[in-house]
Design goal:
It is built from four helices and three strands. The protein has 237 residues and is mainly alpha-helical. It folds into two domains: 28 residues; 140 residues. The two termini are 112 Å apart.
């Protein structure tokens, strides 16, 4: 095969370069124009952006449900429908008849215990109050004093009999057995008299301690009733 002439090869190379260079320029210009067109169109493109998040929708003025803590008939209503309330305003009051009856009963018991304790404070020490506050303790003391006076009379007689018969025994007028009978009678009466006082003072002291504890428990019950009394008033939250 013969090589092509030099001038012919030159024409073919220039023709090849020209053809391919022209196509590349067209492609480049086309791509460049497309990029420029996209950049120019960016501000004109609308894109919907959606954001999801958990939340709670609440009204500006909320409805608050108000309930009473106890079930009872309504006694008084202090507001009208649609009235504006402040926190703590009383809306209504329930009937408190049963509650007040219980409270009155406990207060009466409390007052009775207080009167008894006033008397027992002196009786337990062996003293008689000038003015009794409790009728129950006054009756107890009256019975005690009656029994005490009876024993004092018997004791005085037993001492007198013993003294007289001791002299007779010392003078050998009576026998020892007869003398010892009067001696034992005196000791028995003395023991009865001493036991009466000791037992009665012990009873009063025990009653005092018991009533003191009961009154403390009663006061706790009254305090609890006072708290329950507040539950019978419905107030604005």
């Amino acid at each position: 095969m013969k090589p092509l002439p030099q001038n012919l090869m030159q024409d073919c190379l220039e023709s090849y370069i020209y053809k391919h260079t022209t196509k590349s320029q067209i492609i480049y210009i086309t791509v460049l124009l497309a990029v420029i067109a996209c950049l120019v169109a960016l501000p004109l493109i609308n894109v919907d952006v959606t954001v999801q998040n958990a939340g709670m929708v609440r009204p500006v003025n909320e409805r608050t449900e108000v309930k009473a803590s106890v079930s009872e008939w309504v006694d008084s209503v202090y507001v009208r429908e649609g009235a504006r309330l402040q926190q703590g305003d009383t809306i209504l009051r329930l009937r408190t008849d049963n509650l007040l009856a219980r409270q009155l009963l406990l207060q009466q018991k409390m007052e009775d215990m207080t009167r008894q304790l006033s008397d027992l404070g002196q009786l337990a020490q062996g003293n008689t109050p000038h003015h009794f506050a409790s009728g129950v303790r006054m009756q107890e003391n009256a019975y005690y004093m009656k029994r005490k006076n009876e024993l004092e009379t018997l004791l005085e007689k037993a001492r007198s009999d013993y003294t007289r018969n001791k002299q007779l025994f010392d003078n050998e007028v009576i026998s020892q057995d007869e003398y010892e009978q009067y001696m034992y009678a005196l000791r028995k009466t003395e023991n009865e008299y001493s036991s009466l006082i000791t037992n009665q003072l012990s009873i009063w002291q025990t009653d005092k301690n018991s009533l003191t504890m009961n009154r403390a428990e009663l006061q706790s019950s009254l305090d609890q009733l006072q708290k329950e009394h507040e539950m019978y008033y419905v107030t604005s939250p």
